Sequence to fold (510 residues):
Amino acid sequence: MMAKSDNTVTRSVQTFGDYAYFIADLFTATLRHGVSWRSVIEEAHKIGIRSLPILLIINLFVGSNLTILGFHAFTPLGGQRLVGLFVALAGVRELAPIIAASMVAAKAGTQMASQIAVMRIQEQIDALEVMAVNPHAHLIAPRMLGILLVMPALTLIAIFATVFSGYVVSVYQLGLNGTVYLEFAADGITAMDFVYCVVKAWVFGIIICTLSCWFGFNCKSGPEGVGLATNRAVVSSAVVCVVVNYFISEVLYGSL
Amino acid sequence: MQLATPVLDIFSVFGRFAMFTGQVIIRIFSRPIFTQATLNHLAITCQRCVGPVIAVNLPFGSVLSLQGLQIFEMFGAQRLLSSLVSVAILREIAPVMASVIVAAQGGSSCAAELGAMRIKEELDATEIMAVDSLRLHVVPRVVALTIACPLLYIVGALAALIGSYLTAIFVEGEASGVFLYNLWTLTEHRDLWAGILKTSVFGGVIGLIASYQGFRATGGAAGVGRAVNETVVYSVLVFITLNYFLTSALYGAP
Fold:
């Protein structure tokens, strides 16, 4: 790696180039060295099981808040029946995928970053290289394939949690008609929405995994280095996911 | 501890956290108060978080008006877009997204700093010098996060409104005058106050969880990573749960 320049612009271009080079190297190393499928399944299991409880709880509460918000927003317009449509559209198209991605970044992404950062500062990664094992193919490729396997499933679970808690809140807390809620919710969602959600889930999975592993790989020495790498991993993956989400939505749903 | 069953573990974690919270709260309201340290932490937290908060809220506002237009086009009621977008942003989107970023950036760096201090025995050194490490290191961070979170909420809400305006006018081609005229028709003053109240509660919760995790970090560099991870996860979990109850208390009655 080149020495970092003092100029901010040059430095950010260098950082971006480092990141792009990292991704390119990840792909070539994976193709050349292959991946052990057993570790892919292990990583998928770990990422999925670790993120599932928090993802469920958060999406339940996001759905209930969305329902209360929709109820109050539509009451002055006399359209309380629209709550189901509102929860289905806002929850399924936007909030469930992005909240699921943030939770995976917070739970699995930070864990990836801190594990790899600890390996880096304890010189385990150098040891792998000495033994002619490619660290990208050995450490990152299983995590990447694992996250790609579980992200769509987690996103679909998040969607059902959001719509379900919207149903519970609108029937039992706000006293609306459950059948009307479900009819309007079903009107709002099409089969293509689920396909788009899977596409978003894969893109977010790639972003979370590459950014977290990259910050872990470039960790500075000492305990502060590990903390800093973990911190940067979660913030940057959340920011990049939300920004990319806008462009995906604009392409898929917008009138551009 | 003899009876280390999972249930007892959970209760002892709650008990320790409650005692930690009590100790911090007593120190917040008693002398000596380290005003300069608090202001420094406030400045650092705001400086670190303001970029990510804007970067997350601006696209979120854009997506809101993008998807809102899809709904309102079904009924031919595009003029209602801005009034509903502003309600959604002020009540839910901006408080939650600003607090998520404060947890991910401010809370996790607070846990990382305190965890590294604990691992390198700096906290023990301050205790040995008869300096109260809770008062010196924890209280300023908790107070700074409690104040920073509402400030960042206001910045985030403005960014989200700007994002939704830009998308509605320049991308989707709605009329600018209609958007601005309807912007504040459904919002009330209490929406802003409720948002500020909610975010200051969230900020305090984030600060307490982050400093608790950092303060109790063990096991070298890996322990710091674990503390940061658990800070982000638990603080998001707790404030989203609190958000539901606060929203229900403020707006929930049908």
Observations:
- Helices of chain A lie at 8-33, 37-74, 83-121, 124-130, 135-173, 178-188, 191-217, 223-253.
- Residues 110 and 139 of chain A are 15 Å apart (CA to CA).
- Chain A has one domain: 47-251.
- The two ends of chain A are 40 Å apart (CA to CA).
